[in-house]
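General statements about sequence and structure are easier to judge against a single worked case. For one protein, we set the task of working out the structure tokens from the amino acid sequence alone. This step matters because it turns folding into a mapping between discrete strings. The amino acid sequence and the backbone structure tokens for this protein are reproduced below.
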Amino acid sequence: MPSQGRSSTGAASRLQDAWLRRGLLACLLWPLSQLYGAIFALRGWLYSLGWLRAERVPVPVIIVGNVIAGGAGKTPVVMAVVRHLQARGLQVGVVSRGYGRRTDDCREVLDGSDPHDVGDEPALIQHATGAPVFVARRRIDAARALLERHSATQVIVSDDGLQHLALARDIEICVFDDRGIGNGWLLPAGLLREPWPRRCDLVLHSGERPAFSGGFTATRSLEQDAVARDGKRVPLEDLAGKPLIALAAIARPEGFFDMLRARGLTLTQTIALPDHHDFDAWQRPPGSEYTLLCTEKDAVKLWRKAPDALAVPLHFEPAPEFFAALDAKLSSPDGYQAA
């Protein structure tokens, strides 16, 4: 069967392609990028003057974000950072806006939370790490609610929020994928949410190769096993030669499909859907002879529609030097200022 689900992502894909070079479409959008840059600069100026104020909480805050549009792999970085800090014996909490959720309040993400109410990425982070996770439109509200409910929390990690200046931060981690900074222009003519270079504490390349010189690297591969809804693990090698349909509703679905093929799996069909797809109107392809594979992020929503789907987790491992630098920043007297 051919790949499906591409019509809804075609326009976004064309724009993503335009952001990688300074072609006709990017040039036509360039005047709008200048307006965007002016508004962004004005906002930063208001914060520097104190007219807008960054609010601090009494524990260190680590921001994991990016300066480029369209997911750069922040969520795997968040989970890797949380697990590392937990292994050090620290009590870690996570805050997020909960992109794509249908609610607008401040709430805790619990084991039984509906991903539509809290966001698929916060639901995945909570499920994968066991850390307390709160979502709110303003991350400072999420941070305060988290500390009120979990007073033993020693460090807060913010999923995204590099441009959310209302939450004061102690360490900024900027994540880049293989696209780097694209054509170097601001939105909507290019990838950049803000001008680069800009000050940040750590740069991490999440893709297959460093996007540019400088910063730390990471390795990424699929886990050896897929995971069923009940936690049962199925070795990927056992799926070789079987009819498989792969589904992904992430920023770059083809990356997931390619990684499955690299594991020796033959995909009868691939389904690429928009990032954060809610699956409410999604219809499962007919037939009972195939196995449906998806990403971990998609599974938290998809299992409600297709409980027999198998999630294939991503193994993401930043270089040891990255964690050493993070630990040094966290323990530095200059890296954390208490409220």
Q: What stands out?
A: The chain has a mean pLDDT of 91. The chain is about 30% helix and 20% strand. The radius of gyration is 20 Å. Residues 24-49 form the longest helix (26 residues).
